[in-house]
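subagent[fold] <- orchestrator: predict structure for attached chain, return tokens only, no commentary.
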Amino acid sequence: MEPKNMLDKATPPPLPKTMNPSSYNIEENYGIIDWFKKGMRNYVNFSGRARRKEYWYFLLMQIILIIIAMVLDTIIFDSEIGLFYLVVALGLFLPGVAVTIRRLHDTSHSGWWFLISLVPLIGIVLIVFLVRETKFETNQWGPPAK
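subagent[fold] -> orchestrator:
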């Protein structure tokens, strides 16, 4: 009987029913930095879909990095818009456009709707599209991101 007890102590407990390996999604454990890195890895991917979390966390990190760059420019160069700001803004421009277009795809809108942001006051429509919940059906840009 002694070997059986040792075996029971060495075997891991079973997974809870809500967490079986087939339905477990690694993105559930993502933090803000992970979502930002995912957006940066897909910096030229204008097809596919992006979840709300991916878009809004990417935007938040983009704003934080721009503020840090502006503070550094103010301290070092005595200017709010300087070298650090330009590097960060140019480096995040294309990934920001790509994640916005993928987010529009996730709400079943074409990426061309991004251009409506150039029209004063009417560009608010873009914010409404970006805030919407994911469309859970497969569309022309692929299966749901969630």
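orchestrator: received. Logging for downstream: DSSP finds five helices and no strands in the chain. Residues 18-24 have pLDDT under 50 and may be disordered.
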